[in-house]
Each structure stands twice: as structure tokens, then as C-alpha cells.
UniProtKB/TrEMBL annotation:
Origin superkingdom: Bacteria
Name of the protein in question: asparagine synthase (glutamine-hydrolyzing)
Reaction catalysed by this enzyme: L-aspartate + L-glutamine + ATP + H2O = L-asparagine + L-glutamate + AMP + diphosphate + H(+)
PANTHER family: ASPARAGINE SYNTHETASE (PTHR43284:SF1), ASPARAGINE SYNTHETASE (GLUTAMINE-HYDROLYZING) (PTHR43284)
InterPro entries named in the record: Asn_synth_AEB, Asn_synthase, ASN_synthetase/amidase, AsnB_N, GATase_2_dom, Ntn_hydrolases_N, Rossmann-like_a/b/a_fold
Origin species: Streptomyces endocoffeicus
Biological or metabolic pathway of the protein: Amino-acid biosynthesis; L-asparagine biosynthesis; L-asparagine from L-aspartate (L-Gln route): step 1/1
Pfam families: Asn_synthase, GATase_7
Gene name per UniProt: asnB
Length: 608
């Protein structure tokens, strides 16, 4: 895992701009604390920060195809899980290798297949190739969008980076926010392409971008497609087990310590069990994988359920660790520590955005910091809910019938910071237009029922929108601590197979995630297999709520915050007794605090 950045301009000589590319690269140091490097050519400047995971000695970047007069220069972030197979294939085609790294496999694969390189890669990745012969830049992002990749226009070309902060180190790119950016940020629709920052765009998941003297061309090389499902229930369960097992095995490879994030839910527990079994096969029966969960010091006594949480995770995680035989630890956080302004600002800077989930972001950031003391790679169960139908909105008739994004019925405007009506953003109309466009992208199957197609729409929205913000959160907060997080449930073959499975199979036992539960039989305790869906934990401590209200009052003393936020709708959240503050209203306050921190750190130009 790493940070990548650079720019291409056909109007200037990049060789005279070393301080610029060095500043852009330095902005990504947390993503790559182990090493850094830059490459300068006539029209291109390429930078890289490295978190060394595979081939510690041989994977330095930017990587050129040959030491002198290179034809290609690569800066790459991620992991290619089929790099051994590709290496053998490329050797058979006449390619020679200097290193064991998957980075060199990507470089040689580009030399062989050009822009079709992405079709051959299995993994999570974002990379840029500058081709000196053809004078062109290729940007590529993995199929599900696990790894981020942003770009913005500059004179005569474009600049790119793993995070917007790298772009802002370029003298032609200012942090600027307009009405469109505020709509993107606060509508909670999770579009990919436009961002909160004016002029800064994302490469689409499963997409690539080509730049040459004639301009920019973008295309998708992968997207979800619908088709006939070939298997009955037993065969489908067996196939799901095989696909999850294969993904887990492939993602166990690392030359550094690796662990698992195990909350005590079915997703992470099944995954941890498969990883533990594979590790014992490789290293012997006494091998134990480390596993981690997070908790708050007050949870055992003061846990109360809310719209997203039905129970306390820690007992289930402890039971799962004993059942599987992991070296399990629970990182216990003091809820009051989540109010630390230094931690809060670090989270906002990591995300480059005012939109987060408050204490849940801060606690995840602190959890990753603790894990990083022992491990460099963590494996996570993210995406299983989207792949197997785990969210309440898959099963709620009201959500299925509603003409809007289903998560808005769960969180709703109650959880969105209300914006100043004088801004005239017309969020409601924006949501309606975006929803129509999102539904138009959902593939159809001839002859399928209206009910079946609606379930396909809900899953498509969840995989192409809701999941993106979860992956964004996990990437940015983990990489801010120099920790790589892998997500086996995002294996595109598993996603494709599950997407074609009819809803009757996904819910054959009348519950959520039927296929995963059946495939995981014997891998987890029965209590975990049959446990209801539980979201990432939040603190319930009144002292946290009281401190949050104080921070929100301070934030609203800022003229810039008041110009953007609807103070009249936020004030009732400030006046509520701390122990009576509802989850959604608390999240409003979290976003007011984050907005103030974001404005203070980035000092953006507001063009409203």
C-alpha cells in the first residue's frame, strides 16, 4: 500500500519543477512512511510514498522499466493478488524480472497489454503509468474502488494523487468549494466522479483515464452486469464458500505482520476463521493469527441500542476468538479521549472532507493506531452486507417501496447537518435527479419480476454508492496510520457471482445474508452465525455527548460555519440533555464540529 501522485503538462518542462513534485509526494507521507521517491521527465513528474509489504528490498518506486532511458514510469498503490500467476504468464511471453514485487508485475503487464492491463489484474489498486514513447499518461483504479485516485486539470495536462491534499501542493490547484461541492458532500448520495472540491474529480471504480496531447479520454473497463444464475441452493452455497476462501487465501500474503479485524459479527468471524485455517496449513498447527476488536470503557455498563446497533460486540468477538483459536485483543478506548481536538483534526485531514461519522471515525483512527504497533496489514470484513444483502433496507417493505436511496430512510435528514437555506442548494431536487440516474444504471434481466428487479436495484445502489463511502473511510483512516487494510469480500468474482444470485437464494432462510451464513457453517460459533446485523460501535457515555455539545457551540461561534449551517435546526440538539441526545441529532453536532475543523485546516475559497 502506498501513496501516488504526479502531474503531466505538455506546456512546460517538468524537470525544472522538482520542488513541486517533492511537496506533492511529501503530502502523502502517512500513506507511505517507509520510503519515498520522485522521477522527473520533460513532460511528467511522478512521485511515490511507500508502505513496504511485499519484497521490502526490491519494490522501490517510482519504478522504471529500465534504469537508463526508461520507456515507462510506474507509481502504484495496492496489492495484486494474482501477481504470481501473472509473473509466470509474462515470463512465458519473454519478460524478465528484477524483483519479487507485484509492482514490477504491473509494469511488465502494461508493457505487454497497454491500457488493457487492468483486465488482467485481481486486487485492490490505483496506479499511474507515464509512457515516454507514446507521451501519454494512464490512470487506473480497481473494480470496486478500494483504492482512491483523484485528479484535477493543470495548464497543459492534469495532476493526480491518492488524496486531494497532494493536489493542493501543486501551485495551480487551490482548495475551492462551490455549491455543487456542498451538494455532493451533504446530500449523502456518495457519487463517484465529482467531489466536494471544485475541479477535483475521482477516477471511477473500474475505470481508467488516458491523457495525451489531444486531451483526456475516460472509460469503464468493469461494471456490474446481470445474467442468469446457473446454480441451485446447494451449489450456490458451495460456490460462495469457495470464492470467499479463495479470496481470503490470496490476501494472506505479506512480508510484514498481518492481522484480522474481528468485531464478533458473521462477516469478520467467517473471514478470520478462513485466514486462521490457511495460516495453520502454511505454518503448522500451532500458528495463530492476531485478531482485533474495538470497545469503549463504558459499553458493558451503559450500552443502549439505537437505529444501527442491537447489541454489545465484545462478548461475541471474545467467543469467536476462542472458537477459532486466534491471538485476540480488544482495544478499549476512553470515550472522553474521542473529544481530543488533535485526534479530531487528524481524522478530518485524513478524509480531506467535512463529512464523516464523528466518534466512530475517531475511534477507528485510534484503533488503527494501536494495531499498527504490531501489524502492518489488517484484513477486514467490509462489503459483506452489500454483497449478501445484510442491511435492514434489503428487508424493509417501506425501504423497498420508497422512491429514494434506501439509507436515507434509516439515517434521513436527521443525521445530515442542515445547511443554511439561504445558500439555495435545493438538495431535495438534487437527490431526486441523482436517484433517477442511479436507477438507470442498474442492469435488467429479461423476464425477471418487479420484486426481483427492485432487490437488484437496492443491491446495485448499495454496491456502487453506499459501499464507496465505507471503503473511502477505511482506506483514509487506516492509511493515515500507515496500516494497509485488505477487503476480501470485494473480490470482483465474488461480487459478480452474488449479484447474479436471485433474491430467493440470498434470503432462503428468511434472514439477512443467508448464503454467507450457510457457507460459514462450522467456521464460527452458532451465536455469531445467527446474530442480527450490528454496525460499528459508538459510545453512549453522557460525558462524550456533553463534550460534543460544547465543541459544537464553539464551532458555531465561527462566522464561516454559521454561513453554511442552519443554526436554527442545530440549536435544539445543543439544548437536549446529554443522556437524551438521539443518534441522528448527535451526528448533526459531529458534522458541525468537523466542518469547523475542515474550514480551519484547509482555508478553502468558498465560491457560493
Amino acid at each position: 500500500m502506498c501513496g501516488i501522485t504526479g502531474w503531466v503538462s505538455f506546456h512546460q518542462d517538468a524537470r525544472t519543477q522538482a520542488p513541486v513534485i517533492e511537496a506533492m509526494t511529501a503530502a502523502l507521507t502517512p500513506r507511505g512512511p517507509d520510503a519515498g521517491g520522485v522521477w522527473l521527465g520533460e513532460h511528467a513528474a511522478i512521485g511515490h510514498r511507500r508502505l513496504a509489504v511485499i519484497d521490502i528490498e526490491g519494490g522501490a518506486q517510482p519504478m522504471t522499466d529500465r534504469p537508463d532511458a526508461p520507456a515507462t514510469v510506474l507509481t502504484y498503490s495496492g496489492e495484486i493478488y494474482n501477481h504470481h500467476e501473472l509473473r509466470a504468464q509474462l515470463r512465458g511471453l519473454g519478460h524478465e524480472f528484477r524483483t519479487r514485487s507485484d509492482t514490477e508485475v504491473v509494469s511488465r503487464a502494461y508493457a505487454e497489454w497497454g491500457e488493457a492491463v487492468a483486465d488482467h489484474l485481481d486486487g485492490m489498486f490505483a496506479f499511474a503509468v507515464w509512457d515516454e514513447r507514446q507521451r501519454r499518461l494512464l490512470l487506473v483504479r480497481d473494480r470496486l474502488g478500494v483504492k482512491p485516485l483523484f485528479w484535477a486539470a493543470v495548464d497543459g495536462g492534469l495532476a493526480f494523487g491518492s488524496e486531494p491534499k497532494a493536489l493542493f501542493a501543486h501551485p495551480e490547484i487551490r482548495p475551492r468549494v462551490d455549491a455543487d461541492g456542498l451538494r455532493e458532500a451533504y446530500s449523502l448520495l456518495f457519487n463517484t466522479g465529482p467531489t466536494v472540491w471544485s475541479g477535483v474529480r475521482e477516477v471511477e471504480p473500474g475505470g481508467l483515464l488516458l491523457l495525451n496531447r489531444h486531451g483526456i479520454r475516460e472509460r469503464r473497463y468493469w461494471q456490474l452486469e446481470a445474467g442468469a444464475h446457473p446454480d441451485d441452493r446447494d451449489a450456490t452455497v458451495a460456490r460462495v464458500h469457495d470464492l470467499v476462501s479463495t479470496a481470503a487465501r490470496a490476501q494472506l500474503e505479506a512480508d510484514v505482520p498481518l492481522c484480522s479485524l474481528m468485531s464478533g459479527g458473521i462477516d469478520s468471524t467467517v473471514l478470520t476463521a478462513l485466514l486462521a485455517d490457511e495460516l495453520r496449513l502454511r505454518e503448522g498447527p500451532d500458528a495463530r493469527i492476531r485478531s482485533y476488536a474495538v470497545d469503549y470503557s463504558d459499553q458493558a455498563e451503559s450500552f443502549t441500542g439505537d437505529v444501527l446497533r442491537t447489541g454489545h460486540d465484545t462478548p461475541y468477538a471474545t467467543e469467536a476468538g476462542a472458537f477459532i483459536g486466534t491471538d485476540h485483543s480488544t482495544v478499549v478506548l476512553d470515550p472522553r479521549a474521542l473529544l481530543d481536538p488533535e485526534h479530531r483534526e487528524a481524522v478530518v485531514v485524513a478524509r480531506d472532507s467535512p463529512i464523516g461519522v464523528g466518534d466512530m471515525d475517531t475511534s477507528l483512527y485510534l484503533l488503527f493506531g494501536e494495531i499498527r504497533k504490531h501489524s502492518t496489514v489488517a484484513v477486514s470484513g467490509e462489503a459483506a452486507d452489500e454483497v449478501f444483502g445484510g442491511y435492514p433496507w434489503f428487508h424493509d417493505p417501506k425501504a423497498l417501496a420508497a422512491p429514494t436511496f434506501p439509507w436515507l430512510l434509516v439515517t434521513g435528514d436527521e443525521a445530515a447537518m442542515p445547511l443554511n437555506p439561504e445558500l439555495g442548494l435545493r438538495i431535495g431536487e438534487f437527490r431526486e435527479d441523482t436517484y433517477r440516474g442511479a436507477l438507470a444504471a442498474v442492469p435488467h434481466i429479461d423476464g425477471e419480476s418487479e420484486t426481483e428487479h427492485r432487490q437488484r436495484e437496492i443491491q446495485h445502489l448499495s454496491l456502487t454508492r453506499w459501499l464507496r463511502q465505507l471503503l473511502h473511510r477505511k482506506d483514509r483512516l487506516s492509511m493515515a496510520q500507515g496500516l494497509e487494510v485488505r477487503v476480501p469480500y470485494c473480490d470482483h468474482r465474488l461480487v459478480e457471482y452474488a449479484f447474479t444470485s436471485p433474491w430467493a437464494l440470498k434470503s432462503f432462510d428468511g434472514r439477512e445474508k443467508s448464503l454467507l451464513r450457510a457457507a460459514g457453517t462450522g467456521l464460527a460459533p452458532e451465536s455469531v452465525l445467527h446474530r442480527p446485523k450490528n454496525h460499528y460501535p459508538a459510545t453512549h457515555h453522557p460525558d462524550y455527548n456533553r463534550g460534543l455539545q460544547d465543541m459544537a457551540r464553539d464551532a458555531l461561534a465561527d462566522d464561516r460555519v454559521r454561513s453554511l449551517a442552519d443554526e436554527t435546526r442545530i440549536k435544539p440538539c445543543l439544548d437536549t440533555a446529554p443522556d437524551q441526545l438521539r443518534w441522528g441529532h448527535r451526528l448533526r453536532l459531529e458534522r458541525v464540529v468537523d466542518l469547523a475543523l475542515w474550514l480551519d485546516h484547509y482555508q478553502p475559497d468558498l465560491a457560493l
